Amino acid sequence: MEFVKPSNQMQQKIVGIIGAMPEEINGVVSLLSDCTQTSMGMRTYYTGRINGIKTVVVFSRWGKVAAAATVATLIHEFNITELIFTGVAGAVNDQLHIGDIVIGKRMIQHDMDARPLMPQYEIPLLEKTFFDCDQTQSAIAVKATATLLQNSHLHQLISKEELLAFNIVSPRLFIGDIASGDQFFATSQQKKQLIKQLPATLCVEMEGAAVAQVCFENDIPFAVIRTISDVANEQSHIDFPSFIQKIAGKYSKAIIGNIFSNY
Ligand code: ADE
């Protein structure tokens, strides 16, 4: 007998939420009601409901392989119907500052290079260079983020002193290209090189475009939300851990909470 997987339309909505680090998802896990934990492949999957909607939350660990393995498990073991990635990124466009938020429009793997067999950045055999984020989900993420960035909302979550310690005054929302690769950007030289090659890139991180590829291959709509933790330069090794420890989780929890109230 042929096994027919129900189409996304026929299935009940199950939202997968991934961050790369515990700090990025702990606040989101706290939103789950009736939370249960499942351990699989060295990951802990937290299952429950947010605003009545079935949701699975997990941190993938860093890098493309870790993220791809995690999203494959979410799709095949937990039957998610859509995915949200929430986390931090290093800004490479100089308009962006720490505390700004980027909603991905297109995702690219900046370290994919099978030249001379294929053009630089093209994913072998998929004939794709960019993966498009889902427009409907991204529009909901934009609305949720805009709500957070209204000054009064942000200040309810994070004290003025904490924000000022990171020079966060009037954080802004950007929508555009995000580049992912197995590389932490910690020098201006790395940033310059990337911008020269991929000038439309707003920020860099280490998972999003891998998640995007697996979602594309499995027809799962996805959105990527990244808060700027550092500006991908010689200061990043200080800014990044400090931002992760003090701010990142609060942004993630608030944005995800706002998204679920817009569903
Ligand atoms: N995620 C957050 N900051 C980053 C950086 N500078 N490089 C790569 N990924 C990041």
How does this model look, in words?
The structure is a single chain. With 263 residues, the chain is α/β, with parallel strands linked by helices. It has a single domain (14-262), classed as Nucleoside phosphorylase domain (Rossmann fold, 3-Layer(aba) Sandwich), CATH 3.40.50. Helix content is 37%, strand content 28%. It contains eight helices and ten strands. The chain has helices at 22-29, 64-76, 135-149, 151-157, 160-165, 188-197, 208-217, 236-262; strands at 14-19, 33-40, 43-50, 53-59, 82-91, 101-109, 130-132, 173-180, 201-205, 222-230. A five-stranded mixed β-barrel has the order 5-9-8-6-10. α1 packs parallel to α8 and α3 (135-149) crosses α8. The longest helix has 27 residues, at 236-262. The termini are far apart. Bound molecules: adenine. Adenine (ADE) is lined by residues 88-90, 184-185, 204-206, 229-230, 232, 236, 240. The site of adenine has 13 residues, from β5, β9, β10 and α8.
Concise account of the structure shown:
This protein is an alpha/beta fold. The chain has helices at residues 22-29, 64-76, 135-149, 151-157, 160-165, 188-197, 208-217, 236-262, and strands at residues 14-19, 33-40, 43-50, 53-59, 82-91, 101-109, 130-132, 173-180, 201-205, 222-230.
